[in-house]
Amino acid sequence: MNNIPLEAYLLVSAIMFFAGVYGFLSRKNMLTILMSLELMLNAVDINFVVFNRFLYPGAFEGFFFTLFAIGVSAAETAIAIAIIINIYRNLQDINIDRANELKY
């Protein structure tokens, strides 16, 4: 069976999630913020799979939730990158502080 305890997976997931939160809150570059958001989503995906594996070893709901979350994440990333490209075309910069200039 599996020799790695549940706490080890949760520790890795928590480290990934809080690294993503730190990057999301501390960075000014839109692409870095997007990467931090994706890191947080991947930490959640790990939790889906791990809890499914340990709580319901014969079921696949956690895996299906993870596949659905990956699909939503891919669509969200494609849209976010398109928005960032349009902002770069208008401002010649992808700093989050300059995005306020698009209002007027």
Please name the defining characteristics of this protein:
104 residues, mainly alpha, Helix Hairpins, 0% strand, elongated
Describe, in short, the structure shown.
This protein is an all-alpha fold and 104 residues long. It contains 3 helices and no strands. The model has no long low-confidence stretch (mean pLDDT 90).
**What percent of the residues sit in helical stretches (DSSP H or I)?**
over 70%
Shape: elongated
Low-confidence stretches: none
Number of strands: 0
Structural class: mainly alpha
The ordered string of helix (H) and strand (E) elements is HHH
Mean pLDDT: 90
Topology:
Blueprint (H helix, E strand, L loop, with lengths): L5 H21 L3 H26 L5 H31 L13
Describe the 3D structure:
The chain is built from 3 helices and no strands. It is mainly α and 104 residues long. It has helices at residues 6-26, 30-55, 61-91. The model has no long low-confidence stretch (mean pLDDT 90). It has a single domain (6-103), classed as Orthogonal Bundle (Helix Hairpins), CATH 1.10.287.
